[in-house]
């Protein structure tokens, strides 16, 4: 990750993130860090070499999933919990994670939607291609993903961000997932114009280019190889401002 704004990054030498760039969950944390101008130690884990099953990784996270975040003795293994912890403890700003209970509840609600709906639908489509020699996204999976696009398009009707007038951690987490699903099932600009507009706005954020683009391109190349097609993460966002 790189410097994303005019303010110098706060370096937390006691914090470490184990991650794989192609994972949308890892990229959500990376974008969150850059959006908050926080720098921590990062350790790349090669999933293809089964490094996520190494003894030291399993000791921290028996589920053998990424990301893994450690702050001294505290270990967190869910991207949503990591981002909200970092925002609450180290980021003195009320925008990404509102302090008032109502605003925080709205953000949490969307993070739960990402965790409980979007991410499982992404994995259901991607995992058979990446790990089970499948060569296409099944029709039922396409339907489920497009239903999610419809949900998000409705939420974004008449508002610039998912929670309203300000960008929050919910936008960042969901952007990581949706930008990845978009490679598997492209977002139809005619069906989902609000979602396309939001995706374009997110792609213009500096933290998106520093923390999401590289891993997204890696995922696109891998999916393209398995599907025997040229797949790009570069999306043409056409909309009327």
Strand order of the largest sheet: 2-1-3-4
Helix content: 40-55%
Number of H- or I-type helical stretches = 9
Number of strands: 4
Q: Just give the CATH class of the largest domain.
A: Mainly Alpha
Query: Would you tell me the overall average pLDDT?
Result: 92
Domain tally: 2
- The sequence of SSEs as H and E is EHEHEEHHHHHHH
What name is given to the CATH topology of the largest domain? Answer: Glutathione S-transferase Yfyf (Class Pi), Chain A, domain 2
Radius of gyration, rounded? 17 Å
Low-confidence runs: 2-6, 236-241
What is the makeup of the main sheet?
4 strands, mixed
Shape: globular
State the separation between the terminal residues, measured CA to CA: 31 Å
Q: What percent strand? A: 5-15%
What does this structure look like?
GO terms for molecular function: glutathione transferase activity. InterPro entries: Glutathione-S-Trfase_C-like, Glutathione-S-Trfase_C_sf, Glutathione_S-Trfase, Glutathione_S-Trfase_N, GST_C, Thioredoxin-like_sf. One of its GO terms (biological process) is glutathione metabolic process. The chain has 241 residues and is of the alpha+beta class. It has 2 domains: 10-90, 3-Layer(aba) Sandwich (Glutaredoxin); 101-227, Glutathione S-transferase Yfyf (Class Pi), Chain A, domain 2. Helix content is 52%, strand content 10%. It contains 9 helices and 4 strands, in the order βαβαββααααααα. It has helices spanning 24-35, 55-60, 79-90, 101-131, 139-155, 169-184, 193-203, 206-211, 213-227, and strands at residues 10-19, 38-44, 68-71, 74-76. A 4-stranded mixed β-sheet has the order 2-1-3-4, covered by helices on one side. α4 (101-131) runs parallel beside α6, α5 crosses α7 (193-203) and α6 packs parallel to α9. The protein is globular and about 45 Å long. The chain starts with 9 loop residues before the first strand and ends in a 14-residue tail after the last helix.
């Amino acid at each position: 990750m790189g410097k994303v704004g005019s303010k110098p990054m706060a370096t937390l030498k006691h914090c470490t993130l184990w991650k794989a760039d192609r994972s949308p969950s890892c990229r959500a944390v990376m974008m969150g860090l850059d959006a908050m101008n926080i720098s921590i130690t990062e350790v790349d884990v090669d999933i293809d070499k089964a490094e996520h099953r190494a003894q030291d990784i399993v000791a921290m996270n028996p589920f053998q999933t990424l990301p893994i975040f450690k702050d001294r003795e505290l270990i967190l293994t869910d991207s949503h919990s990591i981002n909200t912890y970092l925002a609450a403890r180290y980021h003195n700003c009320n925008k990404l994670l509102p302090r008032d209970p109502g605003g925080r509840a709205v953000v949490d609600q969307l993070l739960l939607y990402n965790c409980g709906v979007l991410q499982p639908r992404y994995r259901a489509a991607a995992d058979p291609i990446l790990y089970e020699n499948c060569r296409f996204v099944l029709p039922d999976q396409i339907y489920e993903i497009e239903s999610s696009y419809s949900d998000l398009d409705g939420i974004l009707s008449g508002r610039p961000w998912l929670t309203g007038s300000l960008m929050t951690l919910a936008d960042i987490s969901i952007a990581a997932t949706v930008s990845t699903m978009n490679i598997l099932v492209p977002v139809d600009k005619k069906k989902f114009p609000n979602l396309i507009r939001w995706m374009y706005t997110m792609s213009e954020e500096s933290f998106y280019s520093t923390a999401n683009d590289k891993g997204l391109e890696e995922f696109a190349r891998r999916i393209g190889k398995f599907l025997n097609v040229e797949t790009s993460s570069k999306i043409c966002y056409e909309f009327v401002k």
